[in-house]
Fold this sequence. Notes:
By secondary structure, the protein is mostly helical. Helix content is 60%, strand content 0%. It has helices at 3-14, 40-49, 52-56, 75-93, 97-106, 115-125, 132-143, 150-157, 168-191, 202-208, 212-226, 238-254, 263-279, 289-295, 297-306, 310-321.
Amino acid sequence: MTVREMICERERQTLSEYATLSEKSLGRDVYVEPCTLRTEFQRDRDRITHSKAFRRLMHKTQVFLSPEEDHYRTRLTHTLEVAQIARTIARALRLNEDLCEAIALGHDLGHTPFGHAGERTLQQCYRADFTHNAQSLRVVEKLEKLNLTVEVRDGILNHGWQMNTMTLEAKIIQYADRIAYINHDIDDAVRAGVLDESAIPDDILDVLGRTHSHRINTMVTAVINASADGKIDMEEPALGATLRLHDLMYELVYKNPIAKGEEGKACEMIRQLYEFLIANPEKIPDEYAQIAFEEGIDRAAADYISGMTDRYAVNVYREYFIPESWGTK
């Protein structure tokens, strides 16, 4: 037996009847010979981690735009936290950890620079139905042609809260994503002086816990306890407290004028970059030229901009719009 065959045999023997077995994958759009060492989902995980889009996540905003201090989360560290939480839940429920990990690592590949601010701007100037979910799928299918399995692509596209998924592993990502960002955004907001933990009501803290690790443990345990018979859920009272905490974070942090003070500038920058590229298609890099030919310059501009890191977007904007002093070139 190959190593992959031994792993598949172990999955058959140890995973839940509700788990997605690697050998039962619906496969890829383009057939490739099975790897002797890795299952199909492990192979997807590796393809994602070696992609350019994955590397760019380290310089993309999570909540705070282009933070100078090293300890604020980025889109990459968020992704890693989602993967860790998802694997913990999957292991406890005897579901496929490798499928969870692959979906988690790929779920935000299509996020724009400057977080959801960039996403909203492209919705306004490109298309109203532009979402980072669909763009993440486009990255793995069209832009980087990773040829991932159907199950991983489904999880990437449908990782948003309460979206329909074809596997329980993808449903786990929906909970892991929310658990991760609620808790690490509290941590970052307190560090930034945007949030005082005393602003979180005692009735929420009494249920979820008063420390970062305690809250994550409570939420993860609540998902594990409530999930059975082919269903992923979160038990009360943790679910109600988590939803209230999520709404509170929107009011105190995600809409906070201090945390979002630079968003207006970021949105205007994205808008101007988009309009400039539409008017000057020759400025689109060669790798997007075929997209411009096949799908239009607007699609190519959206793909180019959404793939930018925060600092790269600033540098491109500076190149196009900020005059340089005489003799600097």
